[in-house]
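Q: Structure tokens for this one, please.
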Amino acid sequence: MNKKKHLSINFFTIVLSVFLLTACTTEESNNYAADNFPGLKIKLLVGSALGEFCQEATQKFNDTRPELSNGTKFKVYCEAEGSGDVVTKVVGLATKLKNGVLQADAEEFPTIVSVDGEIYQNQLIYRVNKLFPGQKYIPEITDSPMLANSPMVFMARSDIAKGLQKVNNQFQSLAKAKTHQDIHSSSPSSKVHYVHTAPTRSNSGLQALVAQFAAVSGKSPEKMTVADVQKYQPQVKKIQSKITRYGSSTSSLAKAMVKNGPSWASVGSVYESSVISANSNLQPGKNRYQAVYPKSTFTSNMRAIVPNAPWVSADEKAAAEQVIEYFRSPEIQEIATNLGLRPGIPGVALGAKFSPEFGVRAQAKYDSLGPPKPSVVEAMLNSWQKTAKKPSLVAVVIDSSASMLGNKLPAVQNTLQTYTSNLGPKEKIALIDFDSAVRRPVIVDASQKGQEKALQFIGSLKADGGTALYDAAIYARNWLQQNLRSDTINAVLVLTDGEDSESKISLQDLEKELKSSGFNSEKRITFLTVGYGEDGEFNSDVLQRIAQLNGGYYSQGDPETISSLMRDLQLEF
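A: Here is the predicted structure, written as tokens:
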């Protein structure tokens, strides 16, 4: 807001100015690092499924102006990430504490932690115990109060859901079926296209993977061994062969299913709350989706974890107790039910969204699965990355035109180095550099030779020339078509910071071509686009149109955010 230069300002103007200033800084005041709150600051680090509830409940709690019995005022801040990221962050901070890099009173440490299910909670306990044997810094699951829960379900349109409901073991059927009619005779003859999130970072994806191993083995997860993982990974690989897309967010995956239809994904493993959310925001003409409850599934218990650790002081623990009590109050639990989450305490009405209109059943019946041993979970994740995961081939198209001068190109180079170094054994990418011209792809994989080629490519990037965006996009699509494999996730990821200026083809020609290789065809090439830089430097409408033609989506990044953005995009494959 511009400062007023007038020396004489009436009372109304002053009041209005204060109001507007407060409104402009609300978002900043809810940011832990930016807020200059003078009292005790309490950080909550939660899984993504609990993120919206945490933000709303935190805002209401802070409005009560909380303070401790000793008079200390405090404020709560909520940060949401994938459950795998939550565990990684806490373990990383604990490691720094052990190595003397961080002190116990460092503000980076969260006071309250939550993950979206008990598998990742077990992983947190296991990994911190390995760092600090015998200390039991992370309390047992039963000592962590429940905040909310949401069972894992299969999400599908009604004609497919009816058939899924009639089989006893959906994952066993998925392993054998090519079409939905193979699963049940009453289902349509369309191909099975399956989705779930990446289990390495997403709780719903990890629970889906564990449930697959349990279903094909006939064993409960608690009784599975590392040897069982090896024995049953071929059947899990058959299920994974039906995958059309992984992803980082369960909710966005469910919404994409509705938006893109069954040719994009005909069935997905998601939270019940994701089905409710997807049906809550239906566009005109879109079909409703239904939740299919397996006979045995994960409840996805979301608990409040307060570490009994040096980084949680006595005052912080007292504040955490107030926060948890408030979050578990009936009034605040209604926020959870309004968001499609089941309450963490008894006696709270579910509300109108738990109904067939939103694709779910209020009185859903299922046996709740328990978490496997942490060593078995690690074996499953290792098996998925090395054997069961569907392979991917991604053409990464990088704009290196003159507008990338300054801090843009170095940020992209660092991001590409991280991207290529994190490639899994079943992932391969083609790096395509363009400016006024489009250059031949450099093929990179996880091998030592592949990594050397990546470093050479990244080091050779120079900012110069114009922007032949449309030519580069069609070149990448054509290259993928020539190298297409039916058992692989094939995609184009475009990173550009400017509007097209020198392509030989038009946008209309590009759109016509891309329609022939979308998810309604057997070629099934996805397009994901990233606008890099400030608004107005590129045409976001064009990038959205390119992505949406082929079941993808558009994102925006800048030198500060591009690394985390590309890290999330990499999970799609």
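A few notes: The first helix runs from residue 11 to 29. The radius of gyration is 25 Å.
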